[in-house]
Amino acid sequence: MPIYGHTQDKEHFASLTWAKATVGRGYDPSATLILGPFEIDFLPTKHPVTAYAVRIKDTNNGKTLVFTADTDYIPEMAAFARGADVLMTDTNYSDGKKEPKWHMTSTESGKIAKEAGVKKLILTHLPQKVDFSLLLDKAQMAASKQVKVELAEIGKIVQC
Description:
The protein is α/β, with parallel strands linked by helices. It folds into two domains: 1-30, no CATH class; 32-151, Metallo-beta-lactamase, Chain A (4-Layer Sandwich), CATH 3.60.15. Helices cover 21% and strands 30% of the residues. It has helices spanning 10-14, 76-81, 106-116, 132-143; strands spanning 2-5, 23-26, 33-35, 38-44, 52-58, 64-67, 86-93, 104-105, 120-124, 148-151. The strands form two sheets. Strands 3, 4, 5, 6, 7, 8, 9 and 10 form an eight-stranded mixed β-sheet that branches. The protein has a two-stranded parallel ribbon with strand order 1-2. Helix 3 runs parallel beside helix 4. The radius of gyration is 16 Å and the shape is globular. The mean pLDDT is 94.
């Protein structure tokens, strides 16, 4: 089974290949990757380990999913996510987290969703010791009423 990854970190990229199971395939983050009906674009994130946000467009129906991957807030993310049907954000902090931080707060996730004009925001990479209802409330307040905000959960099926 192929597993796609960037090649900037040779050691981690090499770990994608397991004998008789998987093969690592590199992608160029400065170019669109075409996989079947999907067009995948990349945006570098703000994280101590090299990571890229992904924008996946289904060319059959035009539906778009954006996943921020591990990242602190970066203003470029809103333009990258513009008009997405679903935006999944790395929301590991509640409001008030001070620098250094390598993940977003729920308010920052909501702000990106609003600026990008997405239809649905799903908060991912959730913290272990925070009341999730507080994260949802803060993200929804920042996102506006036009954006539906949900939490990621195991087995969740998302339709758009």
